[in-house]
Design goal:
27% of the residues lie in helices and 23% in strands. It has 11 helices and 18 strands. Helix 5 packs across helix 6 and helix 8 packs parallel to helix 9. The chain is elongated, with a radius of gyration of 23 Å. Bound molecules: ligand LLP.
Length: 406
């Protein structure tokens, strides 16, 4: 199914046909007929990832929530629903999208440091599974609004565990320098306060240490931290129904074909081996990138190949407004020329049309010899690609195409 970007719904698709097709694993004819730039989602890869999650968690040792912020495409959320996962949400808009997809409200967690009153009311009116609370003022606001609505809010306190996940500074979230969670030093006090509030049902503790984490060491440190905290609360006679360890598992941006799926077995295995949960305690995960990152590519077309004194630029029709990760986090995505008629490669800077010098997808990138009209795939763009797109420079939002063979 093709979903065109909102701003260009009335435009005709204008295919450029006739270039040689390489055996790329992409449905080339369909790609050729779709107006660029657009996000291409390989739904078979998404389903394999979700099946693997369900296989690894079939013993019910946990509930996996999909972090919708990674990609809110309605077809993707529907697939999540069909595989029975819960969702992690960060705005009223995401709550509405999840409700529309038919996700049961009891499977929804609502995270984020700045929940607006209307968003809290929306969550309460649907009796969502849990509010992950990040500060005392937020806790008090939820209690007050729940009181007015004669509701009980299920709450988990987000703890800032002060663990450096050694990922990019803009996507680390578990150290005391950033805005997330409640400092471990004042946690006992906040837990006590939450237990005393009339319209708060304190469910558990919530953690999230960062994103694109590919080593298990930070997750092991998180397990140690949680084990120590649970011991500490045992001594006080406090028992939590649920422990939410967040998300953060990274994907292999360098080798998307060799590793289309993340190392889910090692990831879940780490928590299974290391966490000492109490009897009856439920474990929750909130994975975004690991679920959708590998299934998506941004497909764009070469507008011009421009030679300058020391560089050769491939100028494509997608820009930083379509995929901001390289400009914002210095992220590197594999780039592939899908239609080159050449066997040999050359070195290019791949850039977009936006009027910013950071509108660069890759520096010194080796591509099959490239020319105007070639189709380019920017790989591993399923997470934080479409969901972070903007209309900067009054450009249209990118369209999307979900492709399935099975
Ligand atoms: N839970 C919470 C509370 C989060 O803040 C996040 C992501 C997740 C779960 C899901 O994390 P994941 O499994 O996807 O790593 N835009 C950045 C990533 C920002 C992540 C924000 N929080 C990027 O493109 O790399």
């Amino acid at each position: 199914m093709i979903r065109d970007g909102t701003a260009r719904e009335n435009h005709q698709l204008q295919p450029i046909m006739g270039y040689g097709l390489k055996d790329s694993g992409f449905p080339m004819e369909t790609l050729q007929q779709t107006r660029t730039p657009f996000y291409y989602y390989d739904m078979d890869v998404l389903r394999k990832t979700l099946d693997e999650i369900n296989r690894l968690t079939a013993d019910d040792f946990c509930t996996v929530h999909y972090a919708v912020k990674a990609n809110g495409n309605p077809q993707i959320i529907r697939e999540i629903k069909e595989h029975g996962l819960g969702v992690d949400l960060v705005s009223g808009g995401e709550i509405e999208a999840a409700l529309k997809a038919g996700i049961p409200a009891s499977m929804m967690n609502f995270s984020g440091v700045g929940k607006a009153d209307w968003e809290i009311s929306l969550g309460l009116s649907h009796d969502i599974g849990c509010f992950n609370v990040e500060s005392v003022p937020e806790l008090l606001a939820i209690n007050e609004i729940a009181g007015e609505m004669e509701k009980q809010a299920n709450v988990a306190i987000r703890v800032n565990p002060d663990i450096d996940a050694h990922t990019h500074k803009y996507i680390t979230t578990g150290t005391t320098d950033n805005k997330f969670g409640i400092d471990i030093e004042v946690l006992d006090q906040v837990v006590k306060q939450a237990m005393e509030l009339e319209n708060i049902n304190l469910h558990g503790l919530h953690f999230h240490i960062g994103s694109q984490i590919t080593q298990m060491r930070p997750f092991e440190m998180l397990c140690d931290r949680i084990n120590n905290l649970l011991d500490r609360f045992d001594d006080k006679g406090i028992h939590f129904e649920s422990i939410n360890v967040g998300g953060g598992l990274g994907i292999d941006y360098e080798h998307p074909d060799e590793h289309p799926l993340p190392d889910l077995e090692r990831y879940f295995g780490t928590f299974k081996r290391m966490l000492r949960l109490r009897p009856g305690q439920q474990l929750h995960f909130e994975l975004g990138r690991a679920i959708v990152g590998g299934c998506g590519s941004l497909i764009c077309r070469v507008l011009y190949v421009k030679e300058s004194r020391n560089k050769r630029f491939v100028i494509v029709d997608a820009g930083m407004n379509d995929l901001i990760r390289p400009a914002l986090y210095e992220a590197r995505h594999r780039i592939q020329n899908l239609t080159s008629r050449h066997e040999q490669t050359d070195v290019y800077d791949v850039v977009g049309p936006v009027c910013e010098s950071s509108d660069v997808f890759a520096h010194d990138c080796q591509l099959l010899v490239t020319q105007r009209g070639d189709l380019i795939a920017i790989r591993s763009a399923g997470a934080y690609g479409e969901s972070m797109a903007s209309t900067y420079n009054m450009r249209s939002l990118p369209g999307s195409l979900c492709h399935e063979t099975m």
